[in-house]
Design goal:
The chain has helices at 2-18, 36-52, 86-90, 161-171, 184-193, 206-209, 212-218, and strands at 24-26, 33-35, 57-60, 76-84, 97-104, 107-115, 120-125, 130-132, 135-137, 148-151, 177-179, 198-204, 222-224, 237-242. With 254 residues, it is α+β, with helices and mostly antiparallel strands. The strands form three sheets. The protein has a seven-stranded mixed β-sheet, sandwiched between helices. A five-stranded mixed β-sheet has the order 11-10-12-14-13, sandwiched between helices. The protein binds D-MYO-inositol-1-phosphate and calcium ion (CA) (2 copies).
C-alpha cells in the first residue's frame, strides 16, 4: 500500500508544481491562507486514496473535514495536509510538501511526505524503518551542540509568540544555529534524515504531524510534546522531535 500512496503523492506533486498563480483565499486567523491548489490537491488525494482503501475515513486540513471524530479512532483514517508550507507556496519560497498520514485504530501506521520540487519521498510504515527515496535513513547521532535546530513559529496562534521566542532564545546558545523553514512536516523529515537534530513548535495540528512524526520515529527520533509525553494523534499539540543524538529533552521546554 505504501507504494500506491507514494504514487498518488507524486501525482499530487505535479498539481503543486504546475500551479501557475495561487488564487489565495483567507481562512480564519492571522496569516492563515488557503489557495485553490490546496483544495484541488486535497480533492485529488481523497478521490485517489479512496480507490485503494474505500473503507478509510478522511481528515484533511481543507474543505471542512477538519474535526477528529470518534469514528476515526478505529479502522483506517487518512490524515491529509495537501500543502504543508502554504505561505511558502504563495510566496514561491521553498519548501512545500504533501503530507499523507494513515492511522490504523488511532495509531500511526503509514506516513508519506513528498517534496515535489526536489523529488524527495519520505516514507515509513510502523515498525519497518524510514526511507528517503527508497533508501533507509537514520537520524544523526551528534549532540545538540554540534547541530542545527529548526523551529516553527505556530503562526496562527499569536498568543504563543512570546513563549516560542523565549524558548528559541534559550536554545540558540545550546546549538550551532536556528532555522525556520515554513513547513512542520519538512522540519521533522529534516531531523529524520540528519540535516538537523531537533525541531520544536508550540502548536501544530494532526495533519502537520500524522505522517512526519512516524517517519521521524522510524528514523530513530524521539517525538513528544513539550512536556515529554507521546503525541496524541487526535488533534493539536505542541511537538519536539529529537534525533538519536539528543538524548534528553532540554529543560527549557518543561
Ligand atoms: C503550517 C506549517 C508551518 C507551521 C505551522 C503549520 P500550513 O502549515 O507547517 O511550518 O509553523 O504551524 O500550520 O498552514 O502551511 O499547512
Ligand atoms: Ca500544515
Ligand atoms: Ca496546509
Amino acid at each position: 500500500m505504501t507504494d500506491q500512496i507514494v504514487s498518488i503523492a507524486k501525482q499530487a506533486g505535479e498539481i503543486m508544481k504546475s500551479a501557475v498563480k495561487p488564487g489565495v483565499m483567507e481562512k480564519s486567523g492571522h496569516a492563515n491562507f488557503c489557495t485553490e491548489t490546496d483544495e484541488k490537491i486535497q480533492a485529488f488525494l481523497i478521490e485517489k486514496l479512496k480507490e485503494i482503501l474505500p473503507e478509510a475515513e478522511f481528515l484533511g486540513e481543507e474543505d471542512g473535514q477538519d474535526v477528529f471524530t470518534s469514528k476515526m479512532k478505529s479502522g483506517y483514517c487518512f490524515v491529509l495536509d495537501p500543502i504543508d508550507g502554504t505561505s511558502n507556496f504563495i510566496y514561491s519560497y521553498r519548501p512545500s510538501v504533501i503530507s499523507i498520514g494513515l492511522l490504523k485504530d488511532g495509531k500511526p501506521y503509514i506516513g508519506i511526505v513528498y517534496d515535489p520540487y526536489d523529488d524527495m519521498v519520505f516514507s515509513a510504515e510502523r515498525g519497518k524503518g524510514a526511507y528517503l527515496n527508497g533508501e533507509r535513513m537514520m537520524s544523526a547521532d551528534t549532540p545538540l551542540s554540534d547541530s542545527l535546530v529548526v523551529f516553527g513559529t505556530a503562526p496562527y496562534y499569536t498568543e504563543l509568540q512570546d513563549e516560542t521566542f523565549e524558548i528559541a532564545k534559550k536554545i540558540l546558545p545550546m546549538c550551532v544555529d536556528l532555522r525556520r523553514s515554513g513547513t512542520a512536516a519538512w522540519d521533522m523529515c529534516c531531523v529524520a534524515m540528519g540535516r538537523c537534530n531537533m525541531y520544536f513548535e508550540l502548536k501544530i495540528q494532526l495533519w502537520d504531524y500524522a505522517a512526519a512524526a512516524l517517519i521521524a520515529e522510524e528514523a530513530g527520533c524521539i517525538v513528544t510534546d513539550t512536556a515529554g509525553r507521546p503525541l496524541s494523534y487526535t488533534g493539536a499539540t505542541s511537538a519536539v522531535c529529537r534525533s538519536r543524538g539528543v538524548r534528553e529533552l532540554p529543560d527549557c521546554f518543561v
